[in-house]
Amino acid sequence: MIRVPRGKAYCRAFDGYCYEWQLTRDPSLRFVATGFEDGGGMYLYKRNPQGKYRMLFAFYPAMIDATYPGQLFWGYPWDIKDVVIARGSTLPKLSAAFDHTFLYDGNWTPPQRQTTVPFVMFRGITAQPNSKVQVPLRFRRQPVGAIELRARAKHRRKLG
Fold it and tell me: What would the pLDDT profile of 138-158 be if each residue is shown by its tens digit?
């Protein structure tokens, strides 16, 4: 995952915090984190060759930190270093968890077309070791397209 400079691409015209990374294996896939001091959201976008962005899905960021083995933290954008991705496959497969009971209680709501919000696993170094994910999660490696379809599936419970 490579950090995209703030003055380029998606973050160039955003007033609050804005972080963007492109996937090394597929540079058209972009993780974007935006928000203000009272809350924010994280999204996966697809960027076409003309530079236009299409949101694939919103997600909750979970993060592992090697200095705290066995613990799962909230993946704040300033702490994230890389995304957990399956090695050896031609399509990028992210570690995602859908079966959870977490409902966000801040100033953010998922996109209307999205009926469930998965957790996506990252690696990083936490600046807030007390900020742990408090719901049990079971991550599975899944292709980006499958995560997008499942996030939009009508049979899932409605959010919000």
Answer: 999 988 888 888 887 654 444
Apex CA 123: angle with CA 70 and CA 39, to 5°? 100
> Residue 112, exposed/middle/buried by CB under 10 A (0-12, 13-18, 19+)?
exposed
Q: Tell me which residue has tokens 């900020």.
A: 131
Ordered DSSP codes for 123-143? EE--S-TT-B--S----EEEE
| Reported pTM | 0.87
* Backbone torsions φ then ψ of 123, nearest 5 degrees: -115, 150
Give the Cα-Cα-Cα angle 115, 117, 118 (nearest 5 degrees).
Answer: 135
Task: Please say whether the beta carbons of 93 and 152 come within 8 A.
Answer: no
